[in-house]
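Appendix B, example 12.
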Amino acid sequence: MEQKNEVFENWWQANKQKALAEDREYREAVETYKMKSGADWLLFGIPVVTGIVCVQHLPINHEILRWVASIAITVVVFVICVYVKSLFHPHRPISDIEADVKKRCLEEYLRTGKLGIQEGRSESK
Protein backbone atom coordinates (compact mmCIF):
# COMPACT_ATOMS: atom_id res chain seq x y z
CA MET A 1 0.00 0.00 0.00
CA GLU A 2 2.85 2.39 0.88
CA GLN A 3 4.47 1.72 -2.48
CA LYS A 4 1.19 2.27 -4.34
CA ASN A 5 0.76 5.64 -2.62
CA GLU A 6 4.33 6.61 -3.55
CA VAL A 7 3.75 5.58 -7.19
CA PHE A 8 0.52 7.58 -7.22
CA GLU A 9 2.16 10.66 -5.69
CA ASN A 10 4.89 10.57 -8.35
CA TRP A 11 2.25 10.25 -11.07
CA TRP A 12 0.19 13.07 -9.51
CA GLN A 13 3.16 15.45 -9.47
CA ALA A 14 3.89 14.71 -13.13
CA ASN A 15 0.27 14.77 -14.38
CA LYS A 16 -1.53 17.10 -11.98
CA GLN A 17 -2.30 19.84 -14.52
CA LYS A 18 -3.62 17.37 -17.11
CA ALA A 19 -5.86 15.64 -14.57
CA LEU A 20 -7.21 18.98 -13.32
CA ALA A 21 -7.79 20.25 -16.87
CA GLU A 22 -10.06 17.25 -17.49
CA ASP A 23 -12.33 18.14 -14.56
CA ARG A 24 -15.30 20.34 -15.49
CA GLU A 25 -15.75 21.91 -12.05
CA TYR A 26 -12.06 22.87 -11.88
CA ARG A 27 -12.20 24.47 -15.34
CA GLU A 28 -15.31 26.47 -14.38
CA ALA A 29 -13.69 27.68 -11.15
CA VAL A 30 -10.53 28.78 -12.96
CA GLU A 31 -12.63 30.47 -15.64
CA THR A 32 -14.22 32.78 -13.05
CA TYR A 33 -10.82 34.38 -12.38
CA LYS A 34 -10.49 35.56 -15.97
CA MET A 35 -11.38 39.14 -16.79
CA LYS A 36 -14.37 39.03 -19.14
CA SER A 37 -16.36 42.20 -18.59
CA GLY A 38 -15.95 45.88 -17.91
CA ALA A 39 -16.81 45.29 -14.27
CA ASP A 40 -13.87 42.90 -14.00
CA TRP A 41 -11.53 45.50 -15.48
CA LEU A 42 -12.94 48.10 -13.11
CA LEU A 43 -12.37 45.89 -10.06
CA PHE A 44 -8.74 45.39 -11.04
CA GLY A 45 -8.25 49.02 -12.07
CA ILE A 46 -9.39 50.36 -8.71
CA PRO A 47 -6.19 49.22 -6.89
CA VAL A 48 -3.99 50.88 -9.52
CA VAL A 49 -5.85 54.18 -9.25
CA THR A 50 -5.79 53.92 -5.44
CA GLY A 51 -2.03 53.38 -5.48
CA ILE A 52 -1.43 56.39 -7.73
CA VAL A 53 -3.65 58.63 -5.59
CA CYS A 54 -1.95 57.43 -2.39
CA VAL A 55 1.54 58.21 -3.73
CA GLN A 56 0.47 61.75 -4.49
CA HIS A 57 -1.61 62.52 -1.40
CA LEU A 58 -0.23 60.56 1.58
CA PRO A 59 1.01 62.99 4.25
CA ILE A 60 4.39 61.25 4.59
CA ASN A 61 7.52 63.33 4.04
CA HIS A 62 9.91 60.46 3.25
CA GLU A 63 9.59 59.39 -0.37
CA ILE A 64 10.46 55.72 0.24
CA LEU A 65 7.99 55.41 3.11
CA ARG A 66 5.28 56.99 0.98
CA TRP A 67 5.94 54.45 -1.81
CA VAL A 68 5.96 51.52 0.65
CA ALA A 69 2.71 52.68 2.25
CA SER A 70 1.18 53.20 -1.18
CA ILE A 71 2.17 49.69 -2.29
CA ALA A 72 0.74 48.20 0.90
CA ILE A 73 -2.55 50.06 0.41
CA THR A 74 -2.67 48.93 -3.24
CA VAL A 75 -2.20 45.28 -2.23
CA VAL A 76 -4.95 45.52 0.39
CA VAL A 77 -7.36 47.13 -2.10
CA PHE A 78 -6.48 44.44 -4.67
CA VAL A 79 -7.31 41.68 -2.16
CA ILE A 80 -10.60 43.37 -1.37
CA CYS A 81 -11.44 43.61 -5.09
CA VAL A 82 -10.66 39.92 -5.66
CA TYR A 83 -12.87 39.08 -2.68
CA VAL A 84 -15.70 41.20 -4.09
CA LYS A 85 -15.36 39.46 -7.47
CA SER A 86 -15.48 36.06 -5.78
CA LEU A 87 -18.79 37.02 -4.16
CA PHE A 88 -20.34 37.50 -7.60
CA HIS A 89 -19.02 34.15 -8.89
CA PRO A 90 -19.51 31.69 -6.04
CA HIS A 91 -17.78 28.35 -6.36
CA ARG A 92 -15.88 26.02 -4.12
CA PRO A 93 -12.26 26.94 -3.44
CA ILE A 94 -9.89 25.63 -6.10
CA SER A 95 -7.85 23.84 -3.43
CA ASP A 96 -10.96 21.83 -2.43
CA ILE A 97 -11.70 20.91 -6.03
CA GLU A 98 -8.07 19.90 -6.55
CA ALA A 99 -8.18 17.69 -3.44
CA ASP A 100 -11.37 16.01 -4.72
CA VAL A 101 -9.83 15.32 -8.13
CA LYS A 102 -6.72 13.88 -6.48
CA LYS A 103 -8.85 11.71 -4.19
CA ARG A 104 -10.91 10.49 -7.15
CA CYS A 105 -7.74 9.64 -9.09
CA LEU A 106 -6.28 7.80 -6.09
CA GLU A 107 -9.48 5.80 -5.57
CA GLU A 108 -9.53 4.89 -9.26
CA TYR A 109 -5.88 3.82 -9.09
CA LEU A 110 -6.40 1.70 -5.97
CA ARG A 111 -9.51 0.10 -7.48
CA THR A 112 -8.21 -0.60 -11.00
CA GLY A 113 -4.44 -0.31 -10.73
CA LYS A 114 -4.43 2.14 -13.66
CA LEU A 115 -3.07 5.65 -13.38
CA GLY A 116 -5.10 8.46 -14.87
CA ILE A 117 -8.65 9.71 -15.02
CA GLN A 118 -11.10 7.51 -16.89
CA GLU A 119 -13.25 9.24 -19.49
CA GLY A 120 -16.60 10.26 -18.09
CA ARG A 121 -15.51 10.23 -14.46
CA SER A 122 -13.85 13.63 -14.76
CA GLU A 123 -17.05 15.27 -15.98
CA SER A 124 -19.11 14.28 -12.93
CA LYS A 125 -19.18 16.22 -9.69
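The radius of gyration is 21 Å. The chain is about 75% helix and 0% strand.
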